Amino acid sequence: MNLKELLTGCRTYRRFLQEPVDEAVIREALENARIGSSGANAQPLYYYAVTSAEKVKAMQPLVKWAAYLPAEVGTPKEQEQPTAFIVVVKKAKAIPFADVDVGIAVNTIALTAWSHGIGSCIMGAINIEKIRELFGVPEEDQIRLVLALGKPSHTSTIVPVKEDGDIKYYLDEDRNYYVPKRAFEDVVHFV
Ligand SMILES: Cc1cc2nc3c(=O)[nH]c(=O)nc-3n(C[C@H](O)[C@H](O)[C@H](O)COP(=O)(O)O)c2cc1C
Question: Which helix H or strand E contains 50, and what residues bound it?
Fold first, then answer.
């Protein structure tokens, strides 16, 4: 897979085969995140790798799927749920740039996972208080994002944004995803 193929295929996945994610893949993804660029090199992030069956199960009701879709098609059913999670935490008193670090980290994790055929969903709609309780995250630290991970059981295809400008992703009859992206000329200005 070359870089363009990696970036094109690394979409959001929301339904998964019920196979565990190899711990080596999770370790490699987090190792790549660990060495990523960081504002002022402050390295304000740490992670919970959620791999045990018990904790993975406990996480399922604490994330919210596909806000643009009705739950009956957008939320994975019991046999479609992710088989691992990673929780991204920002330490207390982090500098404002730390949220950029969060973005770099989650994309690094997603891309590394996808290079091994593991799909992911970056998730901001999460039950922060329940996740804090589940892992004993210190009150002063901020749970920022979660990644859901697993081997995808659907496809996701980039399509152009139509003339009406609608950017909402949609499904076909097999619940495969189509994700509109704005045209190059609309987002890039050579000056
Ligand atoms: C910061 C961030 C938060 C997101 N939160 C959620 C979420 O809570 N639930 C969800 O199903 N998808 C979530 N997504 C996935 C987006 O919906 C998805 O990236 C977008 O529709 C584009 O699809 P693509 O990633 O395949 O390009 C999130 C993505 C990002 C970057």
Answer: strand 45-50
Report the share of the chain in percent with pLDDT over 90: 99
Backbone CA torsion sign across 6, 43, 142, 97: negative
pTM, full prediction: 0.98
Atom 21 of ligand 1, nearest CA residue: 169
Which CATH number belongs to the domain containing residue 44 in this structure? 3.40.109.10
Task: Report pLDDT for 58.
Answer: 98
* Total Cβ atoms within 10 A of residue 185: 8
Pocket test for ligand 1, best of 11, 12, 80 (most atoms within 8 A of CB): 12
Atom 23 of ligand 1: nearest residue by CA position = 12
Instruction: Indicate which atom in ligand 1 lies nearest the CA of residue 126.
Output: 8
* Total domains, the chain: 1
